[in-house]
Design goal:
about 300 residues; alpha/beta; 9 strands; about 20% strand; globular; disordered N terminus
Length: about 300
């Protein structure tokens, strides 16, 4: 047990806050969503469903712009969240000279969502970035995927799509290449999520997302990120130490598994940070995430 604790500690870096920041109460969802919402520069349809859309956030200037592919969370459930939840950090990156391709997708509660629709939507939206790069002056040489919560799972999954078997309904011959992933309080391991009643999404949603085992056998083979490793893509996981929605062990255990398979994965834990702070632009958690994004784009 001691040996495991020591090994887990070696996987992460920790960011401490000044005393005055540490004394502030954690943010709630209304603290974020009641703010005036910035708006994207354009919206692209990649299908006919109202949620098969991408918002494009473009900095001032002519480009080509360094580009982040962004994916919202909300327990893979559209009624909980859509792409607009990411507007504030998308705007913050835009102001910093970074373009954002902020994708939406059909959640498990939408017609056509679940397996394979939710995954096909995420993949199609990602590949649409490449198809629209010239129109919006996006630099696709180093695309960094950023996902929050359930979107952290999808961001990591997009980076690993090249490992999916050709027999899978999710196989894509030439998926968009992801240079690096920054997961913000993500749920990368679906098997671990399904076995963890204390996660804020619950366990039933995973079955809705991946499908019933009796219908297609191993439901995690092409959906859960650890099954697709190693993918050779550097991965940074930013987690709040006080996150009550996504247990910290989700990040610790995933990073250990990714490293064991030979991938470069790091866990960055920020003190006195919950789940909402991860996508609020004024927080230490987002400052750490943005630092990692800048480093990834500059390589």
């Amino acid at each position: 047990m001691l040996r495991f604790a020591f090994a887990a500690a070696a996987l992460l870096t920790a960011t401490a806050l000044p005393a005055q920041e540490a004394s502030k109460p954690l943010l709630t969802w209304p603290d974020l969503t009641r703010r005036p919402a910035p708006q994207p520069n354009a919206t692209v349809d990649y299908g006919s469903d109202p949620y098969q859309k991408v918002d494009v956030w473009l900095p001032a200037g002519k480009g080509p712009f360094p580009t982040v592919l962004m994916i919202h969370g909300g327990c893979w459930t559209t009624s909980i969240a859509d792409r607009s939840l990411m507007n504030w950090i998308a705007d913050d990156l835009r102001r910093d000279g970074i373009a954002v391709w902020n994708v939406d997708y059909r959640g498990v509660d939408r017609p056509g969502g679940g397996y394979p629709g939710t995954f096909i939507d995420a993949g199609t939206a990602a590949d649409a970035l490449r198809a629209n790069a010239r129109k919006f002056h996006l630099d696709t040489r180093r695309v960094v995927a950023v996902g929050h919560s359930a979107g952290g799972h999808l961001a990591l999954w997009l980076a690993a799509r090249g490992r999916i078997a050709k027999t899978s309904a999710l196989y894509q011959r030439h998926p968009l290449k992801i240079a690096q992933v920054v997961s913000l309080g993500g749920l990368p391991d679906l098997e671990a999520t399904a076995a963890s009643p204390d996660n804020g999404c619950g366990v039933d949603v995973v079955a809705k997302l991946v499908g019933a085992p009796g219908v297609r056998g191993d439901v995690y083979a092409d959906t859960s990120v650890p099954r697709l490793l190693p993918d050779g893509v550097p991965q940074d996981l930013v987690n709040g130490r006080d996150d009550k929605i996504i247990p910290l062990r989700m990040g610790t255990q995933y990073v250990a598994a990714a490293r064991a398979k030979g991938d470069r994965a790091e866990l960055h834990v920020v003190d006195h940070i919950g789940h909402v702070e991860l996508i609020a632009p004024e927080t230490a958690a987002w400052a750490e995430a943005k630092r990692l994004i800048r480093l990834a784009l500059a390589k």
